Amino acid sequence: MLKLENVSAAYGQSQVLWDVNLEIKDAEAVTLIGRNGVGKTTLLRTITGLHPVSSGGVRLNGEQVEKEPAFTRARAGLAYVPQGRGLFSHLTVHENLLMGLPALSGRETATREIPALIYDLFPILHDMAGRKAGNLSGGQQQQVAIGRALVTQPRYLLLDEPTEGIQPSIVQDIERALIRVRQELRVAVLLVEQYLDFAWAFADRYYVMQKGRVVETGLTAETPTSEVQRYLGV
Question: What PANTHER family does the database record attribute to this sequence (predicted)?
Fold first, then answer.
């Protein structure tokens, strides 16, 4: 289980997160929604160790990790796909995928090859393995970014706005791949998403953030999107 316990975080004197409690069980899909600027990305960065916790705890597989560096959390099973994808545009698709392998250091499953499953989930990556990542479409880049995260063989996959600027057909491809990731690999997913139809079709539960706090949580199957749409409007 990934669990946040009263997590707060700040940028200098400006507090952004206030006593956030959140948990994700094994192979569960959870979506985190809210307007721009409410702290969703900061929360993901805090979970992964890219931003420090001011107070509170982050528990991963029963261990407290809020003081651990990002690379330690990655080796423990956290993978993060940031908004904007964070690819190396001058490297090829294959080279970008290889960048995920160091997170396997010390594991019995460590390998120097890209797992065949990555290309099975995203066949287009095999066809474009030699192309520079910067020359791909937004949807293709997103598949590379998710593939690179999965190379690390995570237990928890954190995705920040994965459908942003992507054509509907590729959104469907990504959804199908993520469903397989949960079912076949038993990977839990925390999804920050503005596209509610996608989020509700994929996630089991939701959390709503406002002004750095969690203000509502529930089951997607029991809550129509119309009831949470107000949290996204300007």
Answer: HIGH-AFFINITY BRANCHED-CHAIN AMINO ACID TRANSPORT ATP-BINDING PROTEIN, HIGH-AFFINITY BRANCHED-CHAIN AMINO ACID TRANSPORT ATP-BINDING PROTEIN LIVF
